[in-house]
Write a structure and sequence with these properties.
Blueprint (H helix, E strand, L loop, with lengths): L1 H44 L1 E3 L12 E3 L2 E7 L7 E5 L3
Antiparallel strand pairs: 1-3, 2-3, 3-4
Length: 88
């Protein structure tokens, strides 16, 4: 009977550990990954101004922390601009 109790306690420890790790992943790590996936997808579909001139009144290439960004927008929502990393 003691062996069965020990195995039950170990199963409970494993189940609680899995629950804690799952809560950490879905509570903290997944939102960061999901936001990054959505940003990359929107940058791949976007219209971008990566030059020095203005296009439709939108400024082009700009720099933040030593990284060059382009001003981008979606065809459906041209007034909502966002920044994408300049790829080249």
């Amino acid at each position: 009977m003691k062996e069965a109790t020990g195995e039950l306690n170990m199963a409970a420890v494993v189940a609680i550990s899995i629950a804690i790790l799952s809560a950490f992943f879905f509570g903290f790590i997944w939102p960061i990954l999901d936001k990054d996936f959505k940003r990359n997808a929107s940058c791949n579909k976007a219209i971008c101004n990566c030059g020095d001139d203005l296009i439709d009144g939108k400024i082009g290439l700009h720099e933040k922390n030593g990284i060059n960004y382009c001003t981008c927008w979606d065809e459906k929502y041209p007034d909502d601009t966002f920044s994408c990393v300049f790829k080249g």
